[in-house]
Design brief:
Length: 318
């Protein structure tokens, strides 16, 4: 028997079907379809220019999708093409760029923003205190924005996005440029929000971030879907378990012979040779006669899968 809470978590609160967006000859999004469950984190991954931000903007109603007969977007039952304000009312957005008012202090930034949601002064004061405490910014409430570190500004942007207690939190590159301590702090806060029932949409270039936070990812390239699913399950299905990175390719003849084994897949990037295998002993044997300074052995990760799917070449539009 499925409990009521489990039914809610299995509910598809975002439905996207065959969505397109073109700018002249550029197809920014080409026929994307996906679902997002309630209280889940859904991550968009792709190279620069892949269509991630365009897709997010269509979900939020900032950009209109192209007209296609079978194209549709539903956000908690609303169509952003016709019900943009309803979607904005139930959403919070953390943009890539900091757009805080540098002339005001932390608390006043949040107070002004609370007016957009019609919060009374008393309710706004209570909510701001809660959010500053949640994002560990209480001691900075009277500080001017220019006095804050980059990590504090990002945490304040998240607090601002949560003022209306949104059902949907949209995060566009939320931890870019932050040090590891701040990044892990933000990850922990986002996990708490998800546990409390917030649905999260995330774009990120940090593969570890996607692996840590996302229940499901969608990898896109040049506007098209390449793969989607749960990150650990995708790794298990599409990637070998281990990789040997070899630099300074002055390999011995024995090394060259070993890597001809069919169970070892090869990839090259500039002066680095990457050898992938499920059998760790094969890679250990391959590395046996190499200088330890010239190789690195590890488990494969989401970045390996990403590069396998999207390639290692840079596109002109990046």
């Amino acid at each position: 028997m499925v409990l009521e809470g489990e039914k809610m978590q299995q509910e598809k609160v975002i439905r996207v079907r065959n969505v397109h967006k073109s700018y002249g000859k550029l197809h920014a999004v080409a026929g994307l379809s996906f679902d997002v469950l309630r209280s889940a984190c859904f991550g968009f991954l792709g190279p620069n220019g892949a269509g991630k931000t365009t897709m997010m903007n269509m979900i939020y109603g900032r950009t209109q999708r192209d007209a296609h007969g079978d194209s549709s977007i539903e956000i908690f039952g609303y169509d952003p093409a016709r019900e943009e304000l309803e979607i904005k009312y139930l959403s919070g957005v953390v943009p890539q760029e900091n757009n805080l008012d540098v002339e005001l202090d932390v608390r006043k930034n949040l107070m002004i923003y609370s007016k957009f949601y019609g919060l009374s002064s008393r309710e706004a004061e209570r909510r701001i205190d809660e959010l500053l405490d949640f994002m560990e910014l209480t001691d900075k409430k009277k500080s001017r924005i220019r006095e804050l570190s980059g990590g504090m500004k990002r945490r304040l942007l998240i607090a601002r996005a949560l003022l209306n207690n949104p059902k949907l939190l949209i995060l566009d590159e939320p931890t870019t440029g932050l040090d590891p301590q701040v990044r892990h702090l933000i990850w922990n806060k986002l996990r708490q929000l998800k546990t409390a029932g917030t649905t999260i949409l995330l774009t990120t270039h940090y593969m570890e971030e996607a692996f840590q936070l996302a229940d499901k990812i969608l990898i896109i390239n040049q506007g098209e879907k390449l793969l989607d699913g749960n990150p650990p399950e995708l790794l298990e299905k599409y990637m070998e378990r281990y990789v040997l990175e070899v630099r300074n390719l002055e390999a011995t003849s024995m090394f060259q012979e070993i890597i001809r084994v069919t169970d070892i897949r090869q990839d090259r990037f500039h002066d680095t040779l990457l050898l992938y295998a499920d059998n760790l002993d094969l890679l250990k044997e391959a590395a046996r006669e190499l200088d330890p300074r010239n190789y690195y052995q590890r488990q494969t990760n989401l970045e390996d899968l990403f590069l396998k799917l999207t390639g290692r070449e840079l596109y002109e539009h990046q």
